[in-house]
Write a structure and sequence with these properties.
By secondary structure, the protein is an alpha+beta fold. The chain has helices at 42-50, 98-108, 113-126, 142-154, 172-189, 200-206, 224-229, 234-239, 361-366, and strands spanning 4-13, 16-26, 31-35, 57-62, 65-69, 74-75, 83-86, 160-164, 192-197, 209-214, 217-222, 246-249, 270-273, 278-282, 294-303, 308-314, 320-325, 336-341, 346-349, 355-356.
């Protein structure tokens, strides 16, 4: 196993800064997801770790070994870094059988025929595709091709496994199955895995650590629940969560009393409220008489299978509000309701988008 350290890493293409001053440490044995929207630099970052792209400046270390440092004129080629890379397209040889594809990298390493046969059989069994050994890629489904690509890479026993959106070509049911497969592989081998995705659910369900990237810069790194419960800024809060977080002027959430006293322009602060962090009750008189409640009207009820989404519009300002619940809603479309926020789901953001610490009543009195 190997840790990966990036120091002040930058990559530019002409006038475009694809990766901007990224410094982070990916722990040995972790399952780390690089998460972000299209064009944020996550694939470029992965390709630099793999050795398919050279850094413009900064340094990359894998297992304590410097593999890329332009200032020292040092660049270790991809095939000498001890990493395995699974592409989005799988890149299987169409003229080779499944077994031949899995054994291909071992052949390039000039491993003995006996070792190639043994290792190939082990990987086919691990990925549960032994019965496909004599088939060709064109005879396989997308999920089966995905497993072959993983088996081929894992056969080389890489210290680091890099995955570039490998599930994006699969349908919903296969993606769910392959997520479970990847989690099982990580538990079985303990390999350091770096997984690039734009799908927050993949990141939340698979990762021990999540790196949220935007505009080529790291917005936050932490566990799945850390980035969800304590977003570093409004971008992270908006990007993580489905349905997305509700954003209001802070005063409308009765959160103004929780704003730190050193904030000079409290009215410029916005508040975020997670869709599941509220109670919605029928209220003929709106929110009158309920402390901290917001008056609204239900505009739609959307069943999503195991849960419901209640769409509402605030009486004050007309802002849309989404509420997520696993219980069948007791309210009806066009009905007036009271929205009662739960304090644990409220986040405050400064004008520059950075998250503010919410003060408890005791802290407020002491300040």
């Amino acid at each position: 196993m190997s840790d990966i350290e990036l120091k002040n890493l930058r990559k530019w293409f002409g006038q475009i800064d694809a990766v901007q001053d990224v410094s982070l440490n990916i722990k040995s044995g972790s399952f780390t997801c690089i998460l972000g929207p299209s064009g944020c630099g996550k694939t470029t970052l992965l390709r630099m770790i793999a050795g398919l792209e050279g850094a413009s400046s900064g340094q990359i270390c894998i297992g304590g070994r410097v593999v890329d440092d332009p200032m020292q004129n040092r660049f270790v080629p991809a095939d000498q870094r001890g990493v395995g890379l699974v592409f989005q397209s799988y890149a299987l040889w169409p003229h080779m059988t499944v077994a031949q594809n899995v054994a291909f990298g071992l052949s390039l390493q000039r491993q003995s025929a006996a070792l190639r046969t043994k290792r190939t059989a082990e990987m086919l069994a691990t990925l549960r595709i032994s019965d496909l050994a004599d088939r060709y890629p064109a005879q396989l489904s997308g999920g089966q091709q995905q497993r072959v690509a993983l088996a081929r890479t894992m056969a080389l026993a890489p210290k680091v496994l890099l995955l570039d959106e490998p599930l994006s070509n699969l349908d919903a049911s296969l993606r769910l199955a392959m997520r479970a497969e990847l989690a099982h592989l990580h538990r079985s081998f303990g390999t350091t895995i770096v997984f690039v995705t734009h799908d927050q659910w993949e990141a939340m369900t698979l990762a021990t650590d999540i790196i949220v990237l935007a505009g080529g810069t790291v917005q936050q790194m932490g566990s799945a629940m850390e980035v969800y419960d304590q977003p570093a800024n409004r971008f992270v809060a908006d990007f993580i969560g489905n349905p997305p977080i509700n954003i209001f002027p802070a005063g409308s959430l009765a959160a103004l009393t929780l704003i730190p006293p050193w904030v000079s322009r409290p009215n410029s602060i916005t508040a975020g409220l997670r869709p599941e962090a509220m109670d919605v009750i029928a209220q003929d008189g709106g929110a009158a008489g309920i402390a901290g409640a917001l008056g609204a009207q239900v505009s739609a009820l959307i069943p999503t299978g195991g849960s419901w989404i209640v769409e509402m519009v605030l009486n004050l300002g007309g802002a849309p509000v989404l509420h997520a619940t696993t219980a069948r809603p007791s309210v009806q479309v066009d009905q007036p309701v009271a929205i009662i926020p739960q304090a644990s789901g409220v986040h405050l953001f400064a004008p520059d988008g950075q998250r503010l610490t919410i003060l408890s009543p005791d802290q407020k009195e002491k300040s």
